[in-house]
Amino acid sequence: MLGAGALLAAAVTGALALRRTLQRRRRKPGETIAIAPQTSTAEAQLAAAADTGSASRLDAALRTLAHHLTQQDDDTALPPPLRAARIGTRTIEVLPDNQGQEPVAPFTAGQDGWWVVPADATLLDEEAVREIPPPYPALVTIGSTTAGDLLLLNLAQLPALLLDGAPLHITEVCTSLALELAMSPWAATTEIVIVGFGEELPQLLPTARITHLRQAAHALRDLSEQLLETHQIPDTAHHPYVLLCASALDPDISWQFADLIGRASSLSVTLIAPASTTCGHFPQAQTLNASLNEPQALDCTGTTITVQRLEQAAYQQITTALKASAQPPHPAEGAWKDVPDEPGTIQQSNPAPSQEPPVRKAATPPTPKPTAATQASNEVFPALLAATTAPSVIRLQTTPRPSPPHETEAGPGTPAASPRTPASPPPAPSPTSPQAAQANTPAAPSLQGGPTTAAEHAAPGLHTPEIRVLGPLEVTGVDNTGHGPKMKQLAALLYFRPGHNADVLCADMDPAHPWSTRTLNARLQGLRHCLGSDPCGTLYVPRRKTGEDPYRLDPSVRCDWSHFLHLAERAMPLGLAGLTDLETALALVRGTPFGGRPLPWAEPLQQEMLTRIIDVAHTIAVHRTAPGPHHDLSAARHAIMTGLDADESAEVLYRDWIRLEAACGNRTGLHTAINRIQEVNQTLDCSLETETEQLIHELLNTRKASVPSEDCPL
Question: For domain 560-701, which CATH number applies: 1.25.40, 1.10.730, 1.20.144, 3.90.550?
Answer without folding.
Answer: 1.25.40
